[in-house]
Specification:
Acid_resist_chaperone_HdeD; membrane
Length: 194
Amino acid sequence: MSLSVNEASAVLRQATRETIRRRSMLFMIQGGLLVLAGIVALLSPIFASTFFIVFLGWMLVIAGIAQAIGLIGATQVHYFWLQLISAVLAVIVGFMLISRPEAGLLAAALLMVAYFMVDGLQRVVFALMIRPMRNWGWMLLSGITGILVAFVLVWNLPGAAGWLIGLLLGIELIAVGGAMTFLAWDLRRATALG
């Protein structure tokens, strides 16, 4: 017995929805932490360059670990490897920023471009996989935001690297956290209503 493309897609979407529903509290916690980290980043772009780069590095490490924790037991989902790459990149980039803050803001900006691009792409793919769900557009918007953040950084380098990185990181983290929180909240509410 073989499935049509539409039937296989429906099965995949249902499995993805079920995974998110089962882990909705973890998604909401992760989303809330990302929003909080985004607000902190928006409020702190004028800190000394070294402190800011180290601060940014720790935010990425925490976000990458939280994303990896969210993937525990979700290996059956097709977007798993893309999300895992995104989580690993976040941790690697974060530790690079922490261990070599003197490398400068330009290097940090280039690393952020790579992270925002890969993470944005994985969120666009994820959004398209869950497309029939309510609020899937928030995840799509957060992915597009990540990709746009990468392009804005490239266009404004090297002059604005210092303050622009903090501003754009804050926007990015709020977009990702908000999308995850709305998606998980909606699934919890829909499940509670029956």
